[in-house]
Amino acid sequence: MLLRSAAPNMQLLSLPMAAALGVATFLEEKDVAAQTKWPNDVLVNGRKICGILAQRGQAVVLGIGLNVNMDTDEAAAIDRPATSLRIETGNECAVEDVLDGLLLHLGEWIGRWQAGGFAVLRETWEARCANMGQYVEVGEDADRCTGVVLGFGAAGQLLLREDDGMQREVWAGDVDG
User: How much is the pTM?
Assistant: First the structure.
C-alpha cells in the first residue's frame, strides 16, 4: 500500500502495529484466532502468518505479507514456525477475496491510527500481544537485550524490564521468546 500521511516520524513507528491489528481482525472474521507480535507480525497458534514493514519517503510504503494458500509442506520448509489461511481453515482461498476483506479491516485500523496514533491502539494491541508479560530476547549481537515485556510506550516502543530490574525502551528489533 502507498499511504500519504502527515504523521510525524514518532507516530509512524506504530503504523505496522495498526496494520497488524487490521490483519488480526480480518483473520478472526475467518474464524482464525490471531495474536500480534511486536513490532510487526501476526501469529496464529504461535506460528507466523503475516509480517508487515513500513518505509517512509515522499509517502509511506506499507508492505503486508499474509500467507494465504501456503500448504503444510511449504510451511515446514521455512526456518521458523509458519502457517497460512489455508492451513488454518482447511480451505484454499481466492486471493482477490482475501484482499477485498483485508483492505476493509486495514482501512479501519489505519484510520484509527491516523486519527490518534498509538494511543488509540494501545489497549487492543496489549490485549492481543503474544508476548505481554513474557520473558523475551530482543535484537542481535551487541544490541541484544532480555527481559519481561511490561507494555508499550506512547509511540508503540517496547517497554522491557531487564534482568537487573531496570526498565528499558526498545525502539526496534526482532523479539524471540
Answer: 0.94
